[in-house]
Amino acid sequence: MKLLKGAGIVLAVAFAGIQFVRPDRSNPPEDPAATLGAVAPMSPAAREVFDRSCADCHSSRTRWPWYSHVAPVSWFVAEHVRHARSHLNVSEFARYEPDDAAHHVKEMCEMAEEGRMPLPSYLWIHRGARLGQADVRALCDWSEGARRALQRDGSRSDGQAGETGGKEASAAGEGQHGHRHDDGEPHRESGDGTPPR
Q: What residues are paired with 179 via a beta bridge?
């Protein structure tokens, strides 16, 4: 009996002690112009699904429940959110290149269809986050249109970058191979680098 009592005291002291190890549970400020909604606006149905089942981990709008303040569960929850945000944070969606952004929205549909998201560990407590067939379809219908739009933006950006680079190269070539007299005629240098007489 004394042994059990002593073990209980040790466990209680240890439990109280680990409460002082507090992980980061912050929600960074969100710039509305940088969010997924600003870059690739979601349909109302897709937004409802995302806010209900995905936003807690993949945005800076995490709702931290009471148990996220109690160690050691708090450690698991905080690390889970940190890892999810590092992979995809819709609050900072504007920082992704168009091709990466297109990949992310495509992956959102694929993982929902395969039942890989939300994670089972999240669904244990958040039963309402479970996705039905209509939820998956709403998310994927939006995802397909958003992916195509983002890919078009990426192609347009690549074309503009190539055009700008070509103009710069052309200008640099003219500067290297000759200059003009005051009368507007090109002045070419001879092979040894001295002007022709």
A: 187
> And the tokens for 56?
């807690």
Q: Long-range pairs for 135-139 at CB < 8 Å and ≥24 separation?
A: 135/49, 135/53, 136/109, 136/112, 138/43, 138/45, 138/46, 138/48, 138/49, 139/46, 139/49, 139/50, 139/108, 139/109, 139/112
DSSP E strands, the chain = 179-180, 186-187
**pTM score over 0.85:** no
Retrieve residue 130's tokens. 């479970």
Joined together, the tokens standing for residue 78 give: 């905080």
pLDDT tens-digit readout, 8-36 = 888 888 878 888 778 888 899 999 999 99
The C-alpha atoms of residue 56 and residue 19 are separated, in whole angstroms, by: 23
Q: What is the pLDDT of residue 38?
A: 95
Tokens (6 digits) for 135: 């939820």
pLDDT exceeds 80 at position 5 = no
